[in-house]
Every structure is written in structure tokens, then in C-alpha cells.
Amino acid sequence: MVNHKRKMISTALSTALVETMLLTASTVYAQGTQTAKSAGDKKVEVIK
User: Fold this and answer.
1) What b-and-e string marks burial along 14-43, b requiring 16 or more CB atoms within 10 Å of the CB?
2) Angle 38-40-44 (CA atoms, 0-180°, nearest 5)?
3) CA 48 to CA 29: how far, in whole Å?
4) Which pLDDT tens digits describe the chain residue by residue (48 residues)?
């Protein structure tokens, strides 16, 4: 019984970890694309 509980806890922890990593990755990706866009816009303005 104790082993089963421990397994459930570790599964829940790893699931939470994966979700956190996914959220972090998507946030970083979103910020990266926004930064790239604004940098691209600045370059366009300089060329004009």
C-alpha cells in the first residue's frame, strides 16, 4: 500500500514538472518571437 501511494506521488510530481517546463518553454518562446519581431521592425525602420 505504501509503495502504491509513493508511485502516485512521484507520478503527480513528474506530471507537474513536465507541465511547468512546458509552460516555461512556451512563455520563453512567446517572448523570443516578440523580441525578434520588434528587432525586425527596428531594422526595417533603419532601412527606410
Assistant:
1) eeeeeeeeeeeeeeeeeeeeeeeeeeeeee
2) 115
3) 29
4) 678 888 999 999 999 999 999 999 999 888 887 776 776 776 666 766
Please give the Cα distance from 15 to 33 (Å, whole number): 27
pTM above 0.70, yes or no: no
C-alpha 9/C-alpha 48 separation (Å) is: 59
Measured between alpha carbons, how far is 5 from 47 in angstroms, rounded to an integer?
Answer: 63
Cα dist from 28 to 31, 32, 35, 44, whole Å = 5, 6, 10, 24
Tell me which H or E stretch contains 44: helix 2-47
